[in-house]
Amino acid sequence: MPDIIGHNYIGGARSAAGTVTLYSHDASSGEALPYPFYQATPGEVDAAAQAAAQAYPTFRNLSAERRAHFLEAIAAQLDALGSDFIELVTRETALPNARILGERGRTSGQLRLFAQVLRRGDFLAARIDRAQPDRQPLPRADIRQYRLGVGPVAVFGASNFPLAFSTAGGDTAAALAAGCPVVFKAHSGHMASAEQVADAIIRAAELTGMPKGVFNMIYGAGVGAALVKHPAIQAVGFTGSLKGGRALCDMAAARPQPIPVFAEMSSINPVLLLPQALALRGERIAAELAASVLLGCGQFCTKPGLVIGVRSPAFSAFTVHLAAQLAEQPPQTMLNAQTLASYHNGVTALLAHPGITHLSGQALQPRQAQPQLLRADASLLIEADPVLQEEVFGPATVLVEVADRYELLQALNGLHGQLTATLIGEPSDLQSHADVLPLLEQKVGRVLFNGYPTGVEVCDAMVHGGPYPATSDARGTSVGSLAIERFLRPVCYQNCPDELLPEALQNANPLGIARLVDGRSSRESL
Amino acid sequence: MPDIIGHNYIGGARSAAGTVTLYSHDASSGEALPYPFYQATPGEVDAAAQAAAQAYPTFRNLSAERRAHFLEAIAAQLDALGSDFIELVTRETALPNARILGERGRTSGQLRLFAQVLRRGDFLAARIDRAQPDRQPLPRADIRQYRLGVGPVAVFGASNFPLAFSTAGGDTAAALAAGCPVVFKAHSGHMASAEQVADAIIRAAELTGMPKGVFNMIYGAGVGAALVKHPAIQAVGFTGSLKGGRALCDMAAARPQPIPVFAEMSSINPVLLLPQALALRGERIAAELAASVLLGCGQFCTKPGLVIGVRSPAFSAFTVHLAAQLAEQPPQTMLNAQTLASYHNGVTALLAHPGITHLSGQALQPRQAQPQLLRADASLLIEADPVLQEEVFGPATVLVEVADRYELLQALNGLHGQLTATLIGEPSDLQSHADVLPLLEQKVGRVLFNGYPTGVEVCDAMVHGGPYPATSDARGTSVGSLAIERFLRPVCYQNCPDELLPEALQNANPLGIARLVDGRSSRESL
Lengths: 526, 526
What we know:
Two copies of one chain form a homodimer. Chain A is an alpha/beta fold. Helix content of chain A is 37%, strand content 18%. In chain A, a hairpin with a 2-residue loop joins strand 20 and strand 21.
């Protein structure tokens, strides 16, 4: 049995000052696991935020190389966790073994990607405008700019990626890379897994000589609100529901000092099926799309929740194929009982709407999720009926048939912000629907062509973000190396002596990074 | 007399549907100018936002070169305005002729700087991760990212820079450069000047074939709230008071779709006088600092409002010199009657505090602003008393004497976020106060060495921003080319056919810009 004591992580030590305990559960049996977790007291929340604040001046000033070492050490510690860890995560989430192994690889890969970003140095965004002492009518001072971490960051992990979007996941990795200590609110759905990961982070921090308080973790219901309101916290990363994310945004905006919240929340990820593609390969598209809807029991932020096609015999045939695919599927166990309850509520709310009908899927079951295919009137999109706009988390999707291209554009216009939109089309389709892409660009963070939105590559060019309500701030991404930018701010130095400048801005360019010098990119020393 | 009709600018036409009229005033005499301005009706506010939304799809898709032409055309139109325009601005603001001429040069210079940024192409932040079809265990898709304008932007200009921070000022220039149409709320203090500038913008838009609605302007009290709440508006730029800025932030955060607000608000711009510098050149520093406090009647966001020194005979001598400098100054006319009233309220509130005493400055006068030098107990900073934290806009500054270096650090710790902080010191001072700079970096957007914060260079490396309450979002700047980033968001394309990609991301790299390709910066075609 793993060594799990359920104490909060505060400033490099463990703390269990409170008396309220919580338990996580075996996701398949519903049975409580034998580990009590001690809900952080208000004093412990404060201590965790203070510990992060104390670590900040030291941590932000460490060289990028030192921070890269730390991230790589976390990756190595994660990779070294044994099969008992994988089993524990599997038990808490009902996600299969192979998935957790793959997700661990992605999580350590993310940490290593940020280490690369730190060494590359472009995150520093160094800019130098040299003095022009003889300029008329006034001389120009020497001005140099780079970016530094905003301060301690509060991170709220997701239930559906217990590793990649949780304790040592993308938000934590991005914040640490930026030089921001983290206070992580352990997700109630996988607290034992979170503890094992936190242990790995703390071991890595000790091995690489990081300041105590660089990573803190607290357990408990309701402790997140106190964390977001804490004056030491300077930014928030969140992945979860629209309701939860919006509540945090509202709290953060109402603070005496408002802070930014990067919440990834609700997306229905429309998939547009264009006529030629449907005519040529409708049956294959139905099989591929069904696989994307069902992947991980539909528990992906990018699950295609809306499928739009223009009325045609090919679309009708496709509908029959997709209905058959979903009707045949066995039920699957979801992450936890609440997730299943929300899925049922979501499907029930859709079916209660007079404009929505049931196409296929066996009756909802009390313990597992049964895939569902629904059909909605195009008018619900065109009139922006709220019923279609909020994500139903789980293996359900909604078909919408539009009369023609004009109605298609109207339907797309009615969509709220999305993480993704997908075009399935032949070259001739894309040509004849050229006005669709500019519209989708305004609605989403990522446009896919002839692929499916589940599966998010962790790379420099990825955008896992998008206009509200997909996220609370379309200017960020929570996957990929650009995620670091959310936790950086620029600062500039005017006529600063060279030896006092950060290395990124010194004349000799000791980091060897690309800098914008007098309006031109250069790696040269000055 | 200039041709001023006071109608709102909506979608390339003029509109005066309302019956409420407003007047601007001769700042020196208080007399109303003979131009009625028609307060926008709720319908007109809606129409202005809708016009911007209609212009957005066309405008954002124009080439960067086309937008650069537009900005340069605005600059040319501004530069071509005659001496009657300069006189009009002078009359509305009481700012001297030479200052307005200089400010016009800065304003057209800003527009031309953004044209350069557009041609340079780094604002696009193009990133390409090429497909890896043979990667194991899963192939990698082709992912390409760039940035586009967020949508229509509402801009609120400042009273103190009727050109550079107003109608065609930095926020407008940055938003237009980003591809975002603007709805500008004309500042009540200089509506006639605003109309002349808006005419110049509209002429430039027509000459360069911009879509109607690319720039709109509305007049009136209270119309700003309706504008910020309008669903078409996607971001807000604001320069003004903490109270006004925070009110807009709160409104924007409470929208069904919250939007970002970039408000530049309140900064007291601490200046630290270090011992050796004071001993060597205390009298000169007193003269230079007085000039910075008095420049433009203290009506600068970066006016040094707090001067901190360590107790010493040199600091006492400096205090006498500074007091003498400020005692000798004649009163000056402020921007308008409300600004003078606020100045009086601010000085009176400071003097009402038992920890603050009057050092020099003649009695406050009913029509003009009299410079004032006050002294505050160090305990007010150390205990973070709110009385010292909010900017007093006008020619007043507060001296604080600390006992020693330890008390200096404590005092700096108590400071809120600032636009600037300044260190006046000899090399030996900077060495012996090495722990001051890391603390200041956490508090400000710009650190100056042996200079004065008034006078903000418009360049690539400038940061005119900083932690709250200096601004509402420390990740932005409202001066310099980085200001464009506030109005951009990333979008990515997965497996997009080359001919459908934006030029910035096409294989041939037709724009010839630097792109991050598979983790390396490159200008090559693929």
